[in-house]
Queue: 2 jobs
Job 1
Amino acid sequence: MTKVRHVIGISGGKDSSALAVYLNQKYPGLPLEYYFCDTGKELDETYELIENIETRLGVSVQKLNSASKSSKNPFDYFHQLYGGFLPSSKARWCTKKLKLEPFESYVGNDPVISYVGIRGDEDREGYISKKSNIQSIFPFRKNIWSEDVIKLVLANNKIEIIAQYYNDLNLNGKKDRILEVVYSPLSLSHSQTEKLNTLLDLGVKEFNQVTFRFIKEFTEYPLSKVEEFPLVENEDIKVRDDIFALLRNSGVGVPKYYKEKAFEVNGKSGVYARSRSGCFFCFFQQKIEWVWLYEQHPNLFQKAMEYEKEGYSWIDNETLLELIKPERIEQIKEEYLVRVKKIKNKKSSYLVDILEDAEGEGCAACFI
């Protein structure tokens, strides 16, 4: 069989770091390669976390540098190349140049399984490579497969094949119900998501076995080139609390920028922290995080301000100089406390991190 590479990207955030711990502990037989795309603008805590992973897990994390032939660090090299144009949510050249391209160059044309740290309590897919030699797997989710795989497996023209695969399994008393679902075609009243969730509820391992067999017999995905895949037996679902537990119990530790810091505004008390890894000036930061950076790392905030030249700013319709005016900081903190209160008043059993809009880990969330 063709050798397939198994890789995991470490962004410096909690989810990818916890996935590295999880896979290292639960699947020690996987020949994992660990890599980190260095933007050159990370917090010191990120580099510290990478060192902790190497030490605690006994592995080596390959540091990828997209500007290795330049004397400049990666971000500054491409920032100059783009004529001082700052990246934004509408023009994410930093993601492409500092994350995606070095990753795809690193794996080349080898068949690759890329393990992605999206949790079981998140509703997003993350980056799916357009390259056919890279396949994403999501070990923390009930559904470990990517959207493109699910579309193939649950296509109406594959119903007979999938039914036969299930018939070949020992389904105990679930056989009739499973086949009933399999034979129900996708339609406006029966969505792919609904069908998928029902089949997963009826048996995660069974669905994984069927999907793996389908991949091997009908596709050219990297997993078609391996004889066995241990995650087929995976039934774990890891949510936010599990992530922090994995990091603490392993000794790797939680990235220090997640530690909440107290603040006061107009006689009210609150706490804030950074919610993501990635560049310290990441444009995905919420404004309370910019305030956190200004108050906790003023030297880094000053460096971020220096990039705002010639009409370019990190935030739409507001410069960092405007953001740090005392009255504006007060307003941001007040609005933040209102948001906190609203979420707490929902009294949900699971309190989502209020700083995380898409639970992303900076631009690294796009592909790892």
Job 2
Amino acid sequence: MSTTVATQAAADSPSPAQGRRLQVFNLLLELRAFIALIVLIAVFSILSDAYLTWDNLVTMTRHVAINAILAIGMLMVILTGGIDLSVGSIVGLAGIVAGVLLEGLTLGGTTLFPPVWAVVVIVLAVGAGVGAVNGTLVTRFGVAPFIATLGMLYVARGVALLISDGETYPNLGGSPELGNTGFGWIGSGEIVGIPVSIWLMVLFAAAATFLTRKAPFGRWVYAVGGNERAAELAGVRVNKVKRRVYMISGVCAAMAGLIIASELTSAAPQAGETFELNAIAAVVIGGTSLMGGRGTVRGALIGAFVIGFLADGLVILGVSTFWQIVIKGAVIILAVILDQSQQRIQRRGAAVAAAVATAGPEKPTSTAA
């Protein structure tokens, strides 16, 4: 009798082999965005000879750069357990502010034409200001991040429409006589053959990586997202961290707006519509938890590349725009399902590891009747 019980217990108890299998599955799930990107490139390269060419790769990466910069800012917010739905409207507002400044700002009967570097600084400051308002609504007034940033989505878009009276600023080339030329270089210029927008993406990614991995601020961000109460008890200034991540998101959105306006040499108040959804999708596909506390800059970048390369590949193949929307939505849902699966496997793996450690070395069982 005891022999049967001991045998059954040994069969039911987790083994080191099970733990290793769970580790392999977990690794595959962690690399899912990168694997998806490789599969996308391979499939579209087979279906179209024009896909995997240097010129097309550069073009696609230019498209990705805008979404990637937005995703970096969104990542910082989501890591704290928040969300920022206003980034698309900040993109449009940033372009309009740049258009006003480049075409001349009239103050007290005098029209000022600031240089391009001043335009960039002012626009980024506007983005940071909108982010600061978001952060203040969330921290000081206790408004839920979803509601606060949803309201700011409408406010920022409305301000852009009021400033421009619903019109587009069609010519942002500037004038040499006024000293405000060079704006087009941000979106269309190149450094050693690589578009400036791609270099900006690399710069923002490097700065975000440093913040999240090397700076104390990054540890505070993860701490707030992992357990806000514990972080507060540990001395982290939670509200200050939250305000700063929303400001970072606003700066990233403003930079994306500058790139778009520069590429088009025009600014429209409707620019950036639904961009917040692309940014959230990139972050989720990259493995970031919407509950906060888990995610990486690398993952957000890969997620942005997955969305961008998928969209451009479907365009090259002539797939209908409607089907593109359906496919993008399906990819986002699949990413969330895989994220939930990864969390279950991690919990199961932790339980197996704990059980194996508790059991210790196998002991001989009794053969008594």
